[in-house]
Amino acid sequence: MPESSVAAPFTEPYFQNPYPTYEWLRDNHPVHPVTVPGTDVRVWLVSRYDDVRAAFTDERISNDATWATKEFREAGLVLGAGGDIDRSMSTVDPPAHTRYRRLVASTFTAARVQHWERTVKEIVDRLLDDLRPGGVVDLLDRFATPMAVSVICEVMGIPSADRKSLREWGDVIFTADPARRGEAVDAAAALAGYIRELIAVKRNDLSDDLMSALILAHDGEGLTETELVASCAGLVIAGYETTIGLTGTAVLTILDNPQAMRELRDDPSLMSAMVEEVLRYDGAATTSLWRFAKEDIEIGGTRIPAHDALFLLIGSANRDPRQFADPDTFDLHRVTKQSLAFGHGIHRCVGAALGRLELRVSVAAVLERFSGIELAVDRNEIRYKPLVGIRGPMSLPLILRP
User: Fold this and answer.
1) Strands 291-293 and 297-299, how do they pair?
2) Is 331 exposed, middle or buried (0-12, 13-18, 19+ CB in 10 A)?
């Protein structure tokens, strides 16, 4: 890859702006091998929309790390490998996945999602009440992060007293530092252990939360104990960092596009369109989870050996001009909206409705509450988290006016 023109994947310049790299990959090497930082493990980057979408449903490609090479497994790249989180719904294949997903998806009822909207609005309003207009406010630290933690804890039924620990585990789990992979695995194990203990307590005091619903599914002989723990821990992890990143990115994107800001203020009915376009334009999930070739396969004319790892570059697919006209433009009125932000096929994110809900409610409330919103620093001072699969700013210092 020509370093003079684009950043190598998973380096600091790439984390700051991966889109030139995505463009180069799509145009020159749409299926491209790179080495995972801190290891000798090869991973294939799939960058074009059609290839990514097809790979999501290719039965020759597995989410299950038992198909991975010995080198991959020994590198400690699978979070929770050998532990309770190892067999979450997102890491198993049919037929186990079919039963697993059906039971988990059945707990995401329309009535429960409607109830969550009230919960999200209450949390958002409470956090915004604590923001003092006029000074500099880090929207991620004071709003997006506590909102994400509070919402997932309310939804799952996690006690308020335990939320500090949850936030600390989440921060470590999502570290991108290869030297801290051991800490991330330990944090995942601690989270799983906590979830297991909480499940034991909840069995004697079930309520109308998602964890209780999953416990009922388990006790109806639908989920094993390990699957139950993995499901709950997986939902907590999935609902944490992505929500923080997406909230910060959405506000930043709107600030970068004053016309969109004016349109959203004038016509709040465009909020749903804003959600879909943010997800496409600069979504939080930049790659799929690890995928593994179960046999020798070919993608986009490139041969991938059996057991090699793949990353499906969601962020690249969603900027592919072969699928989206003028893809680098943020357009609230975009007609083609088939983004892959939540994946595709049987492993499509089961919590997509909640993710969309949180983004719509939070951004609408921020715009309604504050008549003036501007960055407190130069735009080029905004730094992004060095995370391989999730994109979002480290901080978002704003000046808010009532």
Assistant:
1) unpaired
2) middle
What does the DSSP assignment read for 330-385? --TT-S-----TT--GGGS-TTHHHHHHHHHHHHHHHHHH-SEEEESS-GGG--B-
The residue ranges of DSSP E strands in 239-336, in sequence order, are 291-293, 297-299, 302-304, 309-312
Among candidates 367, 348, 380, 165, which has minimal Cα distance to 274? 367
For residue 243, give every residue at least 6 positions away whose Cβ sits within 8 Å of its Cβ, in sequence order, or none.
144, 147, 148, 151, 152, 284, 355, 358, 359
Burial class (CB in 10 A: 0-12, 13-18, 19+), 380: exposed
Tell me the domains of the chain and their CATH numbers: 22-401 (1.10.630.10)
The per-residue pLDDT of the chain, averaged, comes to 91
pLDDT at 2 over 60: no
Task: Indicate the pairing of strand 291-293 with strand 309-312.
Answer: antiparallel
C-alpha distances in angstroms, 273 versus 2, 323, 357? 37, 18, 12
- What does the alpha-carbon distance between residue 63 and residue 317 come to, in Å, rounded to a whole number? 19
Quick one: DSSP state of residue 393?
A: B
- C-beta of residue 287 within 8 angstroms of C-beta of residue 46: no
Whole-prediction pTM: 0.93
pLDDT tens for each residue of 313-358: 999 999 999 999 999 999 999 988 799 999 999 989 989 999 999 9
Closest CA to 252 of 400, 374, 153: 374
Give the SS3 label for residue 309.
Answer: strand
Which residue in 389, 386, 372 sits closest to 134, CA to CA?
372
